[in-house]
Structures are given as C-alpha cells and as structure tokens.
Sequence to fold (289 residues):
Amino acid sequence: MSMLTGDRNSTPATAPSSRISQVLSLTANVGWLGLQHVLENGGSGFFARRIVEPLLKTRRLHAVTGAPEFSMPAYVVYPLDREGDQVSRAVEIMHRLADAQANATAQTPRRDAARARGADRPANFVSVRPIAGIGIPRLSKWLGGFTSTATDSSRRAHDEHSFRSRRRAAQQRLRCDHCDRSRWPHHVLESRRGAEYSASQPGRRLASRSI
Amino acid sequence: MVAADAGAPIRKFSIRAESALEPEIMQGLVEGRIDIGVMYTPQSRPGLKVEQLFEEQLILVSTDPNSTAGAAARLCLC
Fold:
C-alpha cells in the first residue's frame, strides 16, 4: 500500500520529527484506513457512501453540502466457459443482492423501476450456511452492503465495447483538475492544514511514500 | 452455500474469499485460480465476462459539521 504525504521538496526523507507537523494532506487508497485517520484526527475526504452511511447517521461524520459526488462502477468478472454452472449462478445471486441493496437505499427514479423488475423474481433464490471463519453469511452481508443504481438493462447492454467506453467516461469524471491524472479509486483525505496548503499551491504534486 | 432454487437439488459449496489488487485478481481469473472477481477497474481479456455489479457513490464527508463545499475545490483527486 502506498500513501501520499506532504511534498517531496519540503519534506525530505531525513526530515526531523518536528517536520511531521508540516505534513499537510494525506491520500490513502485503502478506504477504511483513510476513514480511520479522519475519525481519529479530524478532517474530510471522499468515501463510498455505503461505507460512511452509518457514521453519517450517528453524526460522527457530516456530508459536506454542495460538494461534488462521483459515481464509480464496480464490476464482477468471471470466465466465459463457466456460464451455466455454479459460477454463473453465484454471479446471478450477487447481482440480485446488489440490486436488492440498490432498491433499499437508492434515491433515484431508477429505484422504482428496479423494484418493479424485482417483483417477478423468485423470492427464495438463496439461503446461506456458515462455512469456517469467512463464510457465506459474511460474504452476503458484505454483498448486501453494496449500494447500486445499476439496472438490469444497463448490464445487458454491457458488452466488452461498452465496458471500455464506460470506464473511460468514469475516469474522465474522476480526472484531477490539478495534476491531470486519472488514477482511481483513491480516497482523498484532507487535513485542515491541507486545505490551506492545497489552496495556496494547487499545482504541486504530492510525494509518495511507502509504509 | 445452499442454492435453493425451486426444483433444483440442494448442493453445498465452500467459498474462499480473498482481497487483492486488480492485476492480481485478473491474473487469477485468467489462470483459473479464481472463479469470480469483483473490482473497480477490470481489464478486458478474452475468455472473461465483465458485468457491472453496482455503482459506488463517492461523497465528501467531514468531521466538521460546518464544513462547506469550498474545501472540495481544493482537493486533489489523484
């Protein structure tokens, strides 16, 4: 895992410990790790709604009003030659769970359409049985936590060509105004000092440091 | 896992779940070590099917209840 801390020029590797106070912003590409930092030290950052929803409800975190929102599609990948066997059935179950969660949480007009489609589905499509430590209940809970606004029709139209163009569009949506890079997903953290720093020198690159 | 589709025989499966970076998962899928991968940025490979599973919403949250969108403009998404 790599994190981005401070600026390479102003924070050399041999910086004395007092310089740590000059680490002004921090980027973590592991969501829960960044979230932990924000909760312990204060600050703000972009996180997946499904991750921070409970914290918003308990008011440990607050949604920043007027801030942009980004949507980032997530994909399931499986071998073509497994179509028709248990793998494709498992994928179908994953789609249903993701849709069910979308129906429960999405606030978009698609919600009603998805719910209407769900009405003619068999209700008893899966039951679960725990196997060892990380079993299906945990997996299904995890899957159940997904937030989705995807529709069946959008998936059906989702051949390999449209996949490429969708990904390109998603990358453009997440393109950075400052450094013109489009790497993602990254969860951006910002300390309070980081706001001043970035505001005064928006074009400066952050140095990467492995931990 | 017990798939209880009507009329189908009840079967039991063990599932092994791992987390890894995208290239590692893709390689596992190509080599047949992994049956199903879930990721944000899959690659298009012959023999693999890619389907959108859900759409993640990234929102800006803060520990400060009075924070405004001004901070967002200073964020660097890279």
